[in-house]
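Support case: user asked for a sample of complex input and structure output to validate their parser. Sending the pair below.
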Amino acid sequence: MRTYLLIILVVLLVSPVFAAQPPRELTILNWDDYLDPELVTRFERENNAKVSQVLYATDEDRTRKLLETGGRGYDLILTSGIDLAKYIKNGWLKPLDTARLKNRRHLSSQWLTAFPDAEQYALPYFWGTLGIAYRTDLVKTPITRWSQIFTPAQELHQKIGMIDDSRDIVSMALKALGFSANSEDKEALAQVKTLLRQQKPHVKSYRYVAIDETSALLSGEMVAAMMYNGDALAVAEFNENITYVLPEEGGNIWVDYFVLSHAARNPDLAYAFLDFINNPPVAAQQAEYVYFATPNAAAEKLLDPEFLEHPAIYPSVKALKQSEYYQPISPRGNRLRNIMSSEILR
Amino acid sequence: MKLRLKLPLLLIPVVALPLIIVGIVSYVQLREVAERRSSAQIETLLTQVDLNAHRLIDNARSNVQLFSEYPLVEQYFLADSEDERYSVLYRPLQHQLHDVQKVFPYYYELRILLPSGFEDLRLVNRDIPNLTENEIGSPLFTAVSNSESDLSVQFMTNPDTQQLACYVTKRIRLSNEATDDPTAAPRLRGYFSATLDLGSLFKQFSENRLGENGGIYVVSENGEIAYLPEHLRWLESVDMNLPDDFIMTRTSRMQEIDLGGEIFHMRTQHLYGDLWMYAILPETDLLSASRSFSKVIGQITALAILSSLSLILYVMRVQVVGPINRLRKGLLKVAEGDELVQIPVDRKDEFGELGAEFNRMGFELKKSNDQIRDMAYNDNLTELPNRFLFHKNLGRSMDIALQEDKQLGLLFLDLDNFKQINDTLGHHIGDKLLKEVALRLQNNLRGKDIANRLDQGVVEHNLARLGGDEFTVLLHGITSPVGIGKIAQRLIDTIEQPFFLEGKEHYISVSVGIAVFPGDGENSEDLLKHADLAMYQAKKKGKGCYEFYSKEISNLAIERSQLERNLRAALENNHFELFYQPIIDCQTEKIASLEALIRWMDPELGEVSPEYFIPVAEDTGLIHAIGSWVLAEACCQLKLWQDAGIENLRVAINVSGKQLEKSDFAEQVERNLARNGVSASSLYLELTESAVIQGTGEVLETLKKLQSIGVRIALDDFGTGYSSLSYLRHLPIDILKIDRSFIQGLGQQNNNVILSAIITMAQALSLEVVAEGVESQGQFAFLKKERCDLLQGYLFHRPQPSLRITEQLLSKSLQF
């Protein structure tokens, strides 16, 4: 009886402590729908945490949000590899304590070191390509090249989706014209300017196409869109006529990284999250959720061969041959691109 | 001008003048009001525009201040590397400024200028090409970098758009808390500039037109046009020679200026900085209200004139012209005819009175007309119907006769020798006689009516006096001419009964011509003319008898009238010639004298005998002209013969009684003798018995006068008329010519005794005796035995032209 009373007392004493302790908050700056909600719930349950996500629509959107707060307000930031250096330079990131990340070992070094300082500051989350998704049933001529959406046929008129991102539109236009995506050649850029200008009237929207059931690709309002491979596959879940192609001119190979904000309020929770997400079964489930290729070698082993052999997710080496990583551009080059795209994206 | 035209013409000014005066006064008043109102309106407008402009600019100033304090903007200015600026901050800043432009689209250009003048960032929300990124040396950059104030406003033409724009620029001075010395003054980092679209302002300019051609435009300090709304583009082609002092001393007063030949009212107001607003209002528009008002007044005037005119016309028509016309029509009726004219009098005004007067006058007129008609239709001497009424009756009677298929007899009565009675006994007696004749005719016709009725049905008569001694009788319903003849004879008989006038007995006869309708004339004129001709014929037949009209009578009349025509032509064309028949001395058988005999050789009728044409000449009065010619011709010839040395030759001229009736006949003869220098003794005048005997006292006077100057008088054709030898004693004659009938009748019955008695008697009266028509030796022997003085006849000489006579005379004179 006394024991029971003790237990009750302990419970009574401890419980309020348990109950009184609020869940720790983890704020992540992230793409929309980039985390399996089921996994998030699991993490929250396991860690008595509340995960909040601040979503951004484009890389630039993310940078702007960071600028507004000076990089504050987030614990973890999901960033594109190309912006890593920029963010590090702005002092918005904190180097990672690799000792606290036991699952980091599953990540292939190819992706860990794909961008300068990535190894020190970032954990690769997914990698993928930027290409074209289109409706095979609504487009007569199969789309295989960027030029087909930059100088579109009549059947694509006002049915093209683009991305509201100067880097993506300018770089892919460069690819369409046969230049390097990272070219700073003035002549090449002048051609890009002309190309983008003449494309603009054919474009339905520069807002990144939705990947849920509301997507314009499903309604047919849009029949072709510049898209990330996994997003394309996500939409294709709703309509099997949607196909993703990595254009013959080559696309952009990107790597997304999780980085720790220099102003993280819950770095411990952040580390816990990073380790959780790189736990191979979790990483595999996550990959299947977003249809992107995971840099987690151990997770890959858990994935279906079908997933691993999907050409959109794991393009052939040949297909990747023409594709490029984004490289840092000179400031003046950036200014030029910004001025150019601001006219298009106005 | 007619009353209905004159009255309105007089009334138009009465109606129009007040309206026109009202119009003019209103025009002037309206003009003043319009001027005041537009002045106030322009002032309000300018103030409003000014207010709006200031509000716009003030807002822009605070906004630019606000934008420039955006963290991102400050961060951008503070960024010390191009990499940070262009690779990190540029796109987000573009985004942010883009969001700003979404809210304030009229900040169509947002720029960040570096202290060097480099246009580092430029965001436009419309397609405006950027001409240069280097603003150093540009007017704007010069202005803002030299501006005392950190926040400056400039109005300038945007070189990219060539349009007036407002630049609101904030000079950015910032200290980098991290790197800069906190005590040092903030460093100049650059400029944040917003370019304002003045569209909303311009819209006010273009929306606020002043009249048709006017409006507001913007002029800079130096007088150059800074902004011109579309509808004022025409100003560009106009020489705007505003006086310099106008620009210097812009006033807020309204001023009149001439722009391209049109007068404008101008007012100026300071806008901002060195900008001025010029408001111009065309005078025509200023006056348009008063113009349209005066147009309305004009229309009202016209309408008033029109309506009052029609009213006046209507009133005049009803009140004045109508009654006048009724009166006029009444008067016309009065003028036309003679019936009683009365017009309706239904009014109480002057026209009513006039109408009543008119009716009274019409009544009086009718009365006097009736009297006049009585006078006009009736002969006031005999109270018989006159010629006028007779013609009316005749026409009517002829119509009735035609309708009833009956005959109508027209008797034309003319008293014989009535003129003589008038002349000898005086008009007094003549008139009384006519009265008696009328009475007697009337009684006779009336008295015999019953008998006629019994005899031959109803005969109605209609006696009239045509004038003078002419009467007519119309016999209706007759069946045969015989009855007419009877009536005519009855009338002749009754007139031949003696008349007792003033205790004396008078005898007179009447000749009657009868024409019967239908047959003797188809109209009244012809019928009367033919009756007249028949009467004339009756007179010719010896008077006191009646004669029916016949075709022959008509033909005679026609012939006569042709003769008359030709006779006149003969006179004009001198178709007459004098032949001379010698008269020889019975004892010596020498030519003692010559009788001038007129010959008429008509081109149409051939030779016309004097017996035939002389009566016509006498009737028509042509005898005077012919006589004059004969006298002149004979005198002239006589002179020629005398000049040729033929002495003691006498020429006889035949003179008509008519000639003698002319009082100056003796003088005429005297003149002719004197003109030709012929002695009176060598001329003698042959007169017929009737001419002398029927001649009045004046004729005798003339004869005596002729005798007194030495002209001798011969009595021609002695023995055909009265042949009263005792009567000869009283006549002033010198020669007696025995009619040829006596000579030709020699040897028959007791002609020889009578002839010798005549010769004896004449010689006893100291008259020279001439025997005419001697054609045989026996006659010559007898006459020679009876010691007749002179002989004339074919036995000796025929009448010959003067030339032949001259030859004979000359040869004979040589012989003798």
